[in-house]
């Protein structure tokens, strides 16, 4: 399997219709919605700072009681 077809999170084959995310000026490809979601969660602050992202950068942090 070539690196072009490997999931950017787990390394499995992404198949013919990968889940894609634009980040850092490149297109990341994932094998499933789960890997895409985990990547977003792990890199939330980096993705929020990316130009054109829809999430507000000044969102208050979550408070725990």
Question: TL;DR of this structure?
Answer:
The chain is α+β, with helices and mostly antiparallel strands and 65 residues long. It has one domain (3-49): Ribosomal Protein L24e, Chain: T, CATH 2.30.170. The chain is built from 2 helices and 2 strands, in the order ββαα.
Q: Beta-strand percentage?
A: 15-25%
Main beta-sheet strand count, sense and barrel state: 2 strands, antiparallel
Rounded mean pLDDT score: 80
Order of neighbouring strands in the sheet with most strands: 1-2
- Please tell me the CATH architecture by its name: Roll
CATH topology: Ribosomal Protein L24e, Chain: T
The helix-strand sequence is EEHH
Total helical elements: 2
Tell me the number of strands.
2
Instruction: State the helicity in percent bands.
Output: 10-25%
Query: How far is it from the N-terminal to the C-terminal residue, by CA?
Result: 47 Å
Give me the secondary-structure category.
Answer: alpha+beta
Please give the CATH class.
Mainly Beta
Number of domains: 1
Rg: 14 Å
Describe the global form. Answer: globular
Protein name: Metal-binding protein
Pfam families: ATPase-cat_bd
Organism: Parasulfuritortus cantonensis
Domain Putative metal-binding: 6-48
């Amino acid at each position: 399997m070539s690196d072009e077809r490997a999931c950017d999170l787990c390394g499995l084959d992404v198949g013919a219709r990968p889940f894609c995310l634009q980040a850092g000026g490149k297109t990341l490809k994932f094998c499933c919605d789960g890997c895409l979601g985990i990547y977003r969660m792990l890199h939330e602050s980096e993705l929020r700072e990316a130009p054109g992202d829809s999430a507000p950068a000044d969102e208050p942090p979550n408070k725990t009681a």
